[in-house]
């Protein structure tokens, strides 16, 4: 792979790698793609290779080493059939996902990996499956893609890393950040190559995986591009720094360098920008779809075709004073949340019910916008008064910080903040779930982990396994609390399966 410190070759046992899998981590520009290219070039003639390439960087391997480039703009069924043939004929391929959007990349990669995984036992030959930017296909939290696409992609990556060994599939995954990669995927690797990292949470996880002390995590900031800390049965039995050697091929996206700007006369610059070149391709913009005519406009056109009728003069409804209007809104919110099922209803449905009750009470205008209603709903679900009589200034700080928290988890954050301000025990999973609007304590735990990954809270446990949550932005901390208080009894076997 290169040279080890203080000297000598840094070798990788390929047969051991086929049984133990590899995780590569490093920030952008740390040399992950260079490392993968070195590994692929050195092992090209020794083992079959399958490369999941989201950026088209490894297409250049095809010409030099005889890989077949599979363009992913096909149906999922076609990709599965191609994957089966790849295993049957033992052909190295590069799955190029460059032209697809994020969700299509996840679905295509999942279909191809499932095809490799579901091949017949008679063709379970060893295959090195390299997945670059693995956090795109096994994200730790839901992003902008649909839940279905994320579930399918995460399932395929989990099969590769957890169950692929018996089928001859050796997963090699690379990611920019460990915090973005699903833990059940990262945890199955036994070999690690950790590159330059700057965020504290990623340095801590990298040090934990390598068995280093926390004070040694700072060394990841000092690594040069192309330098990694290696550990694993296929590499070194103890953490050791290595420097990756040179490669024979180059990717499409190299390391950026400074280039002087062209010396173009100022009078020609406008022509170059606004005048179409001789061989410049035409860009076809798809036509806009015809906007459907609203029903109200159709009814208005029909009304204009009828004889004009004098419109009845409606007496304007009297405006309520602001104090009475606010009191009525508070009363309506209390009525909505008094229903036990309202704690688990979605926000838009409750908002429609809220507007209906406002019209019945003759509250004119728009009482609250949808965003204001969601915020008031989050505070109410958390069981917190909007204007507490005591500690008003401190609580205003918590409300200000909560505006930076995503809307759907504001109630959960405020519930923890209220407990921290009062030095009360940390809310249980059941209380957090109710504040979020779900019946699942497991989901509440995941959301608390999400808030921790965003830096809003820090979760720890005391010696009695009671949870303590700190709020770094506010300098508050809850008292120890049992996370299982109020949890419904369940079958221990089903609970273990749910975990």
Automatic annotation (TrEMBL):
<feature type="domain" description="AAA+ ATPase">
    <location>
        <begin position="18"/>
        <end position="278"/>
    </location>
</feature>
<dbReference type="InterPro" id="IPR036390">
    <property type="entry name" value="WH_DNA-bd_sf"/>
</dbReference>
<dbReference type="InterPro" id="IPR027417">
    <property type="entry name" value="P-loop_NTPase"/>
</dbReference>
<dbReference type="InterPro" id="IPR008571">
    <property type="entry name" value="HerA-like"/>
</dbReference>
<dbReference type="InterPro" id="IPR002789">
    <property type="entry name" value="HerA_central"/>
</dbReference>
<keyword id="KW-0238">DNA-binding</keyword>
<dbReference type="InterPro" id="IPR014588">
    <property type="entry name" value="ATPase_Atu1862_pred"/>
</dbReference>
<dbReference type="Pfam" id="PF01935">
    <property type="entry name" value="DUF87"/>
</dbReference>
<dbReference type="GO" id="GO:0003677">
    <property type="term" value="F:DNA binding"/>
</dbReference>
<dbReference type="InterPro" id="IPR003593">
    <property type="entry name" value="AAA+_ATPase"/>
</dbReference>
<protein>
    <recommendedName>
        <fullName>AAA+ ATPase domain-containing protein</fullName>
    </recommendedName>
</protein>
């Amino acid at each position: 792979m290169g040279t080890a410190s203080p000297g000598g070759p840094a070798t990788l046992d390929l047969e051991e790698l086929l049984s133990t899998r590899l995780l590569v981590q490093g920030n952008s520009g740390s040399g992950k793609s260079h490392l993968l290219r070195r590994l692929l070039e050195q092992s090209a003639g020794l083992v079959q290779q399958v490369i999941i390439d989201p950026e088209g960087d490894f297409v250049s391997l095809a010409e030099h080493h005889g890989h077949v480039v599979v363009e992913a703009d096909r149906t999922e069924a076609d990709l599965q059939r191609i994957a089966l043939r790849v295993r049957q004929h033992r052909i190295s391929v590069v799955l190029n996902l460059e032209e697809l959007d994020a969700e299509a990349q996840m679905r295509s990669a999942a279909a191809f990996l499932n095809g490799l995984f579901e091949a017949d036992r008679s063709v379970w030959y060893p295959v090195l499956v390299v997945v670059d930017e693995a956090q795109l296909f096994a994200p730790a939290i839901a992003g902008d893609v649909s839940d279905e696409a994320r579930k399918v992609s995460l399932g395929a990556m989990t099969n590769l890393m957890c169950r692929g060994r018996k089928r001859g599939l050796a997963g090699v995954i690379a990611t920019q950040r460990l915090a973005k990669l699903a833990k059940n995927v990262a945890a199955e690797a036994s070999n690690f190559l950790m590159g330059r990292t700057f965020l504290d949470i990623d340095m801590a996880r990298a040090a934990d995986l390598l068995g280093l002390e926390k004070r040694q995590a700072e060394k990841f900031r000092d690594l040069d591009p192309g330098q990694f800390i290696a550990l694993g049965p296929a590499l070194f039995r103890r953490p050791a720094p290595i420097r990756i050697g040179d490669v024979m091929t180059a990717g499409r996206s190299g390391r950026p360098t400074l280039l002087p700007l062209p010396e173009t006369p100022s009078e020609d610059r406008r022509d170059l920008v606004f005048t179409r070149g001789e061989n410049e391709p035409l860009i076809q913009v798809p036509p806009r779809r015809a906007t459907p005519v609203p029903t109200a406009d159709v009814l208005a056109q029909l009304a204009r075709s009828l004889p004009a009728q004098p419109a009845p003069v409606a007496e304007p409804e009297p405006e309520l004073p602001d104090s009475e209007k606010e009191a009525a809104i508070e009363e309506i919110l209390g009525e909505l949340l008094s229903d036990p099922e309202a704690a688990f209803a979605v926000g838009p449905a409750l908002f429609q019910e809220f507007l209906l009750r406002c019209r019945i009470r003759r509250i004119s205008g728009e009482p609250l916008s949808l965003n204001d209603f969601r915020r008031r709903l989050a505070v109410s679900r958390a069981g917190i008064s909007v204007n507490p009589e005591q500690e008003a200034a401190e609580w205003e700080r918590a409300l200000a910080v909560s505006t930076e928290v995503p809307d759907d988890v504001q109630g959960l954050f405020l519930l923890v903040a209220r407990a921290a301000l009062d030095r009360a025990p940390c809310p249980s999973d059941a209380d957090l779930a109710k504040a979020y609007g779900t019946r699942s304590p497991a989901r509440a735990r995941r959301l608390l982990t999400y808030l921790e990954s965003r830096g809003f809270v820090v979760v720890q446990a005391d010696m009695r396994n009671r949870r303590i949550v700190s709020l770094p932005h506010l300098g508050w901390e809850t008292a120890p609390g049992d996370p299982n208080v109020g949890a419904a009894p369940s079958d221990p076997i089903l609970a273990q399966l749910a975990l």
